[in-house]
């Protein structure tokens, strides 16, 4: 390969690495687990949290209408652990509600390692239908 071609390839590799890094967000240890998604369901907000391996009796939730705090514990694996990627031990995460909810309205359901908590919205979303009559 010629020198100009190598230089262009190196430049392309650098650009590729920069583009790939755009999707990465800085993370602080312990603040991004469990992973969470919010879904607007019109009259309710649902929060989905990944909590595989956590028993329901090891989960606690508190909400004040503005924030939700989830705490729990994933038990350590028995035996001599030689390599670990999955988190274990106690955890806590506080999330801001994306919209105001009725305090204490959360209804939780745990299924297949996913915790769903459904909250009644203080101001339900109303889908407006616009008619085009002329």
Automatic annotation (TrEMBL):
It holds the Pfam family HSP20. InterPro entries: A-crystallin/Hsp20_dom (IPR002068), HSP20-like_chaperone (IPR008978). Signal peptide: none annotated. Residues 27-134 form the SHSP domain. Belongs to the small heat shock protein (HSP20) family. This is Hsp20/alpha crystallin family protein. It comes from Deinococcus lacus.
């Amino acid at each position: 390969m010629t020198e100009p071609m190598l230089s262009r390839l190196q430049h392309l590799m650098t650009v590729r690495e920069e583009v790939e890094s755009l999707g990465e967000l800085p993370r602080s240890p312990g603040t991004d687990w469990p992973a969470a998604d919010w879904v607007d369901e019109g009259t309710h907000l649902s929060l989905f949290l990944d909590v595989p391996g956590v028993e329901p009796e090891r989960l606690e939730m508190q909400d004040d209408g503005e924030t939700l705090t989830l705490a729990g514990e994933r038990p350590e694996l028995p035996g001599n652990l030689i390599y670990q990627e999955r988190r274990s031990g106690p955890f806590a995460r506080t999330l801001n509600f994306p919209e105001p909810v009725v305090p204490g309205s959360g209804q939780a359901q745990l299924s297949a390692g996913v915790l769903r908590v459904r909250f009644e919205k203080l101001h339900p979303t109303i889908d407006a239908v616009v008619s085009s009559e002329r």
